[in-house]
Protein: Diacylglycerol kinase
Organism: Paramecium tetraurelia
Amino acid sequence: MEQVFYLFYNSVSGGNRGQQFVKYDQQELIFETKPKNARVKFFNIYELASRNKGFEQIKQQQQNDTYIVMAGGDGSIMWIVGLLLQYQIDLNRCIIIPFPFGTGNDFANSLGWGTTVPADVIGKNNKVLQNYVEQWLIGAESFFDVWDVDIVLKKDGFISEIKRHTNSVGELKIQLKDYKFNKPMINYFSIGVDARIGYGFDKNRTTYQCCNKIVYCWEGFKKMFLKTPKMNQSIETLEYLDDNDDMQNKLLFKTQENAGQRDSITIPGNPINLLCLNINSYAGGLKNIWMNAQYEEGYKKYDFHPPSFSDGVLEFLSFNSILGIGSERILPGQATRLSQTKGPIKLNFKKNEPLRTYFQIDGQYYSITNPISVSIRSCQQLSHGKIRVLINKQGIVQ
């Protein structure tokens, strides 16, 4: 009796650490482990022939549960989920295990697998990798919420991202159909200054994971002196919707009339960003933002509950300054709680002014010009809007 793990690796994630697996590509290693032996099969998700072979093997295998290890960053998780759907593999029998090879790795961190791996993740006689395999064998299964982010733009609107080529890096407009952009979200969505910092980071990131943290800090310092539209300059309203997209409640920026309403998102002050969390980890391992955050006096009577990645609920927060975001690790409690909601949520931008701002989904950063709205709802392609994942109870973020 043995357990098979299909390990897909992103060979360019986290300073190219995934290159360590290239020598085993489309091959397998067998581990004599307890409580049962394990077989690990390796496939390069970046190479078409390799990943095709892996997905074909998954389709042919007869076990009820298929364990899929994704060695990459946060973006690689939804990449492989999308590919599983594309290859018409039943996601109800797939259990995803994150292997934190990326820069942020908040998804892996929220499931207890940490934010990084050793420089030599295989080790002498494969001992380091075997330690991971033994942890996978005793992991606990859970469900994990997935959300759809839908953006609609004006006819003169566009979205840009940073693209890298062999000897160059620059902004590239994304080709859109009918001025609409759709992307799944598993970790978080934000709009505002933090996304602009990340956008600058994408331009200047290096191939070294340790250096990238310094680059990120430098970008944050520079953005303190640049003007990025604050939320009251870019957002008109936030709306709760029902399943038929009918508006149930509307938010204007805090006024005497809407202050203290239980079913409204209230944005106090003049925040620099709006942050929507699905997990208890943000920006490369910054945890417990929601539980440490401040909240309006009028909301104490409403029982905000601890966040969970499987409760079908999103947490909305805001920060009032870049300094507040930067100091959250050292002095927790810089954010402000706004709301917990099952959605759907619709964010409407101001209509009569040209607008360029920034947003990010799961650590992927974008510039957006002249948007109309952003909607967030439970993922429509997945059963109950969830995937199956494996958690490490010993390392779970509390």
Q: What stands out?
A: The mean pLDDT is 85. The longest strand covers residues 147-164. The CA atoms of residues 137 and 306 lie 28 Å apart. Residues 147-382 form a domain with the Tumour Suppressor Smad4 fold (CATH 2.60.200).
